[in-house]
Amino acid sequence: MSVLVTGGAGYIGSHMVLELLDHGEDVVVLDRLSTGFDWAVPEAATLVVGDIADQTLVEELIRKHDVDAIIHFAGSIVVPESVSDPLGYYLNNTVKSHSLIESAVRCGVPHFIFSSTAAVYGSPARFPVGEDAELRPESPYGTSKMMTELMLRDSAAAHDFDYTALRYFNVSGADPQLRTGQSTKGATHLIKVACETVTGKRSHMEVFGTDYETPDGTCVRDYIHVSDLVNAHYLALRRMRSGGGSLVANCGYGNGYSVLEVINAVKDVSQTDFDVQISGRRPGDAVAIVAEAERCRRELSWKPKYDDLRQIVTHALNWEKKLAGRNRQ
Ligand code: UFG
């Protein structure tokens, strides 16, 4: 029996592979290496380079490796990019997920875990935002993920499989042992960008919008450590295997930090005062989004270990320094 991880050579996927291996699971990674790296996949896992929409390949893998669960990370994740390339996002995130779900149903894979997002809520009417809030995505990215959630909901009702959709808030940090981390080229995520500015990879960074209706005028987000996030997936897998059924749950801590608070935390942890420039709003950005995190804790008995912004920043920074050292060699 093994677990198929799509996008397992990417940032979150590679942490998931480690989490599964640490728990003694057999892991097959399917990744086309468009943004991921083969070196990010540990040797103990089987890496297959290919596309999730290649049904012949996917179904061969499912049968050959006796896959009982698919954890689906492969997809595009940059909110502003989805605004300028909506069809690319609907193709990668929705159409290709349809193909993968179809393969799962056809081969009788009983469990499916989907990497969803807080972007399905848009700018919620209240926060923290619970799973039953209305879904009002404000970007093609959010819509593309919402559509996949709906396909899973309806397919699970019609066929013999369970799914867990985990709605991620802002995933950051790196494996505390630095076995992997966020290595994406041209990354746009706040903590990653700030850490790249510390190591000198960037000369400065920008703050996108200081005129939002928030205490300091910058957007508020709920930053969650990647290792806690993948642990929630592992617990979700265990829950489904023991008959817990389908579940939709937020993955965040329930703490909101503004862009300026995050930048100050990075300056403080790194003891570096880097150049920060104020820019206009970025398309597709929600004003403030913070998780109501109870369902994940209750249903999965999830006990986060790194619920602390400075800890997240420390791990992200350590990884960034490791990457910078590697690039100098
Ligand atoms: N930001 C800056 N400067 C930067 C980068 C980001 O000011 O250089 C700001 C953004 O404008 C935003 C905030 O920092 O206000 C967070 O932006 P990120 O790019 O780090 O993350 P997003 O909130 O846009 O999106 C992320 C994931 C999504 C997920 C979402 C959930 O990419 O997958 O968090 O809140 F859905």
TrEMBL record:
Pfam families in the record: Epimerase (PF01370)
InterPro entries in the cross-refs: Epimerase_deHydtase (IPR001509), NAD(P)-bd_dom_sf (IPR036291), UDP_G4E (IPR005886)
Keywords: Carbohydrate metabolism, Isomerase, NAD
Cofactor field: NAD(+)
Pathway named in the protein's UniProt entry: Carbohydrate metabolism; galactose metabolism
Domain NAD-dependent epimerase/dehydratase: 3-252
Subunit (UniProt): Homodimer.
Protein name per UniProt: UDP-glucose 4-epimerase
Organism of derivation: Nitratireductor aquimarinus
Name of the gene: galE
